[in-house]
Amino acid sequence: MTNNLKNINFINLGKYLFPFSMVMIFASVLLLFFSEMNLGIDFTSGTRFDLTILSDKNKVLKISDLKKAIDTLGLENEFIIKELSSEKTLDYQMFSIISQNNFDEQTMINAFKNSLKISNDSIKPNQTATISPKMGKELIRSASISLGLAILLILIYVTIRFNSFFAVSGILALVHDVSITVGIFILFRLEVNLPIIAAFLTILGYSLNDTIVVFDRIRENLNKSKKKDNVTDITNSSINQTLTRTILTSLTTLIVLLILYLIGNYLIKLFTFALIIGVAIGTYSSIFVAGFCFNMLYNKYGHILNTEETEQEKL
């Protein structure tokens, strides 16, 4: 990094970006409460049927071709069809048929054979998954508990390792990352299923790791400082000192995720898309949300913490 890049006034930039981030969190919460999330059958219940169709090199099947086949059954409005195979795949195509109602897989296969004019050997069922309404509600409950418990444990960990200012700032950054990622999924009607919940938990871990690196350097520099009045300079200096590590880590992670997104099938694309958003936003929040929030809290209430530390030293 050049000297200019190593002396960026992040705290000054945070005066404009931090309020913007709070508005984004608020907007995401509004979307969560007033817009319908596109939940997969993991949470809504229903049947999912995955099948493979051997491709004819002279003709690539489209989702509309399969919909026409389902039209012959008079059930076109009850189904959602998604292609799982990569666009690079030439030998076969994989499709997923999702419905909130139960259906007979063999009847569906026969409709495809007749409408698409393909042989018995050209179509192969992969798997069928049926989620009952009771199981769907239980999965929603488990996913909510997992996210809530993860945030609670992180709050306890950061409080024990650092102090309450760091804890509040760290949790705010995590809420920022997950809420905006969820907001983007709601806004663009992207499917939310169990792998996406796993992606949200992964985002929590990645964001926390980035934030802890910054916090650790801030604490180290605060302990070294004889004059703790100028916390803004210390915080800004700490963020600059960890900037190279933060950028390189994020770039290498994003490169891998981008490759997976480009070559992956539908499910992998959806999962990696969530991680790409989370990594990018997590890198931003570790600087402009967590760092700025800590600086703001310490400048306003740091005298309380310093008084408590002085009393503990006397004891």
Helix/strand order: HHEHEEHEHHHHHHH
Structural class, by secondary structure, is: alpha+beta
Structurally, the number of domains stands at 2
Any guess at the CATH architecture of the largest domain?
A: Up-down Bundle
> Which percent bin holds the helix content?
55-70%
CATH topology of the largest domain: Multidrug efflux transporter AcrB transmembrane fold
Subunit arrangement of the protein: single chain
The total count of strands amounts to 4
DSSP helical segment count:
11
Looking at this structure, what is the CATH superfamily of the largest domain?
Answer: Multidrug efflux transporter AcrB transmembrane domain
N- and C-termini, Cα separation: 45 Å
Question: Can you give keywords for this protein?
Answer:
single chain; alpha+beta; Multidrug efflux transporter AcrB transmembrane fold; Alpha-Beta Plaits; 4-stranded antiparallel beta sheet; 11 helices; elongated
